[in-house]
Each structure stands twice: as structure tokens, then as C-alpha cells.
Amino acid sequence: MFPVLIVVLFSLSWKISDSTQPAEEFLHCLSLHFHNSSSISELVYTQHNSSYSSVLKSSAQNFRLSTPSTPTPLVIITPLHASHIQATVHCCKKHGLQLRIRSGGHDFEGLSYTTTYEVPFVVIDLLNLRSVRINVEKGTAWVESGATVGELYYEIAKRSRTLAFPAGIGHTVGVGGHLSGGGFGLLFRKYGLAADNVIDARFIDVKERILDRKSMGEDLFWAIRGGGGGSFGVVLAWKLKLVAVPAIVTVFTVSKTLEQNATKLVHRWQYIAHKLPKEIHMSIGISRVKSNENEKMTIQASFRAVFLGSIDELLPLMEEKFPQLGIVKEDCFEMGWAESNLYSTQFPIGVPLETLLNRNRKSILSKLFFKAKSDYVKQPIPETTFEGWWPKFYKEEAKSAIMVFVAYGGKMDEILETETPFPHRAGNLYSISYVVDWEEEENKNSEKFMSWIRRIHNYMTPYVSKSPREVYVNFRDLDIGTNEINDKENSHEQAKIWGIKYFKNNFDRLVHVKTMIDPENFFRHEQSVPPLPCLLKKGANSNSLGSL
Q: Which Pfam families match (predicted)?
């Protein structure tokens, strides 16, 4: 069987590279362990396959990490069954290959499909594992990790206008990566994070076992709900608790320029947004625009909200809590909850709900060259700081830059920061996302854009969280530190530099879980949680997580 498979998989003429031997050995192993070997040629893509490039790029969302110089995998596996993943894990271990797992490809640093290490690696792309099963009567859903958030929302909306799930607004984002990092969206002030509403999971560990919540134990179940993807194993599917929403929600976007008092409104928003009722999600998008009056550059702040209720309920609330914004009925639109997610990513009102199913449509932070960073704010930022900020947006490299403030409070203040690995709970007024993007022809000068966002981030140091300066793991940022590939002795101390920024004190518990479930550190990448060697020397039992 093996010679035939090699002919099929390497059928196209291609320059033979140094990677051919490990690729051949790996493929031979797969041919012996795939339960249905006849399907291997349809599920496995080598660098010699004519479809390899299109499959690799299909969900590579950050084009900065999809250039001719970007390291690429020896092989891409697109499994149809859990057994295909088990076989891939087995063969990667046997032949010393690193493994990356991709659901939607939205890792901001591309760690689900590339590497900064000079090592051969394999990608498992979960695009074929994307089923969504909704149980309206029980208010639950089982969703496979390869499904997108949009596919989940669409299936919920088809069956009920009064059920929802509190995940993010990016409809092309993969469920697997999103839930692995926490996942916040329009409903998080009402119901918490996506990960807070996961009630079971199916998981493949380093020993190729398929585990559920009961068999994996509460410590591992805790770790996979916010501890970041790629550290512990492969989550096949998630059981979700759906939440109640009204059939009608109200949205608005009101934009103000500097000439329209934007600075004072942004400053005032800091004191109000996190105290609003849980039913309202508020954010501000800040970017530079041309003034309508004289085409002069100015700064625009777009105040956006999604409210779980009608226009008639929202207007008196805004008049009472934030009269300075001057919201009137004409600013507001009513729609269903699923449609509000499309509205929040700037799709026109009235686009068909099926838009949620389009994996390839360009949207916010997908199919772009970009760099992003994040922060958390615990005290209102002075008005003078914003005034010092605005000139930085007039730089040439900031022409497509945006900052987004998202109000916290509500349910997030009620959940302990140890409830899941995601620790950014009570005490945060809002989060900040910084994004700068550029065109393909500008990528040769990408460093000037990267330098701009780093300067902005540095400027904000005195005004954001400290000790640690907190970062959201789903806004991955390699600037804050990375693991050395083979430095086992110092891996924990190196990882702690970035780990406490993502997870605060939860990082230590994540390390304990990792040590128990994957002591040899098979599942690893530049910012994966490392095991702690000293625990193993004391006789830690990797067969049982126990009580950590």
C-alpha cells in the first residue's frame, strides 16, 4: 500500500528538498495507522501537492504571516474523524515532528499554521470537523472545533430567535481557538465569556485517548477553557450552554470627530460604560478620517452599542446615563441578535443571515496584513493623554490604524479570575485593542507599521494595567516573550515572562496541568504552557491529573 500512496502524494514534479525523508517516513506511518487508508490521499497535502498552497492559505487570516519567506508545514492533515487526529499525533511523536492545530486561522501571530522555529512541523487543519448540533429544548449545542463562530450563530438563529451564545463578533473565527482563549463578544457583560459557558468537551490527549469532561477531570477541563490553544491537546468538540436573548435587540453607531467634541466624550465614556446595565455592550472605535468640511485629517470616535431590548427601552437609558452622546431614535436600529453580530463587524444592515456562513469574505482582522496588541484599563485615562495620542494617528503608517475600547463590568465583575484561566475580570473598566494594517505592496516596509504600533503601545504604559501589564491571549503578541525551542531547564522561567501577562496567577496552575497531562511537552509552540521538570522529578503521575 505504501508505495502507491507515495506515488499519489508526490505525483507532481517538484524539486526534492531536505524535508522529503521525514515527510516520507511520516506518511508511511500515517498509511499504517489511518483506519481507512484509501482516504489518505484526499486528506493529506504535502508540499508536492497542487492543492497544498490553496489549503494552507485558505484560512491564513494574517497575510503578514503568509509570505514566500514564511516557514510552511511538511504536511497538512484535514481529518474527517477523530481517528485521523489520533494517527497524526502518534506519527508526529514517533518521527519527532512538531504539530500545529488550526481551526479558523485567526491566531494573530500565525502559530496555528507556521513557526518561528527552524524545525519540521505538521498542521492539523480542522476545517472538515465543523458540525453544529443544536438542542433547543435543552438549550445546548455540540459544536466541533473546525466550525466558525458564524456557522454556530447561523445554526442557532435558524432554530430560535431567543437563544444565543456569548462568543465573539468575527464570523470567520474558528470555534476551537476562540474558546481555547476565552472568547468575548456582544453578550459577555450579560453572560460572561464563551469559555464560561462551555459545559463539556471531547479532547484528544498526547496518549491519543479521547476524553470527555468526566474522564479528563476538572483540572484539565479548567485549563482548556481559556488557557490558550496548542498547549494541552486537541479539542474535538465543545458542549455549549446557550443563553436567552430577546427576539429584538437595538444597535447604534454614533461617530464624533475632534471638532465635535470627541475627546471629551471618549474621556466621559470611561466613567459610564462599565457601570451600565448588563444588557448593553458598548465600545468605541478610534481612527483617523478626512473631515467632511475641508478634507483635512481629523480623529473620529465611533460609539457603538448593542442593547438587549427595544429602541423605546434604550433611549431613556442613554438619556439618563450618557446624555452627552445625544442618542436619538434615528440613530437606532432594531434587528435580531444574530444580525447584530454582522452589524458590529460593519456589514450593511439587511445583509442576508447566510453571510455568517461565508468563511472567505474579508472582514475585520481577516485577510489582511496586520499587527495587533491589547491592554486593560483600570483607572480612567486623563483627557490630556488622549490629546497627546491624536497626533500619532496622523503619521503615514497610521492611515489604516484603529483602536477599539470595549467596556467591561456587568457579569465580568461577578466571576472570579480563577474560575477559568482567563483572569481579566473585576477591576477592569475596559480593554483596548490596537491594530495597524497595510497593503501587500507595502509589506516590504512592514517594519515601519510594526514600529508605529509598538510606539503607541509604549506611550500607553503609564495608563494601563501594571505588574503585570495584562494581555488577552486571543490577541496573541510575540513581542511580550517566547519560549526557547529546546531549553527544558529554563522553560518555565522564560514562559512566565509572557504567561503572567496572559493568565496572571492562573499561569502556575496551567503549568501544573501541563506537567500532568503532557510532561514531555509534545504539544508546544512559541507561547505554549510548558511542563515543570522539577514536579516530574518528585514523582508526578501523568496518568492522573489529581487535585492541583
A: BBE (PF08031), FAD_binding_4 (PF01565)
Q: Which amino acid is at 40?
A: I
Angle between helices 2-9 and 20-33 (to 10 degrees): 130
Digit-coded pLDDT (tens) for 438-451: 999 999 999 999 99
Instruction: Say if residue 413 is exposed, middle or buried (CB neighbours under 10 Å; 0-12, 13-18, 19+).
Output: middle
Which residues lie across from 133 on neighbouring strands? 142
Range of the domain at 53: 21-125
* Contact in structure between 270 and 381 (CB atoms under 8 Å): yes
- Are 383 and 455 in a shared domain? yes
Say how far apart CA 225 and CA 232 lie, in whole Å: 11
Is residue 85, in this structure, part of any structural domain at all? yes
Residue for grid cell 481629523: 298
Supply the pLDDT for residue 17: 43
> Which grid cell sits at 201?
468537551
| pLDDT score, position 486 | 75
Per-residue model confidence (pLDDT) at position 291: 81
C-alpha cell belonging to residue 325: 452622546
CATH number where 201 lies: 3.30.465.10
Residue 195 is which amino acid?
A: A
33-42 pLDDT, tens per residue? 987 655 788 8
Instruction: Answer yes or no: are the C-beta atoms of 301 and 285 closer than 8 Å.
Output: yes
For the chain, percent helix, then strand, then coil, each to nearest 5? 40, 20, 40
CA nearest to 185, candidates 323, 269, 308: 308
Q: Please say whether the beta carbons of 188 and 420 come within 8 A.
A: no
C-alpha cell at 229: 490553544
User: For residue 510, what is the enclosing H or E element?
Assistant: helix 506-517
User: Rounded to two decimals, what is the model's pTM?
Assistant: 0.93
What's the CA gap between 146 and 254, in Å, rounded? 35
DSSP for 10-68 reads T-S-----TTHHHHHHHHHHHHHH-SSGGGHHHHEEETTSTTHHHHHHHT--BGGG-ST
Q: Is residue 147 within 8 Å of residue 156, measured between CB atoms?
A: no
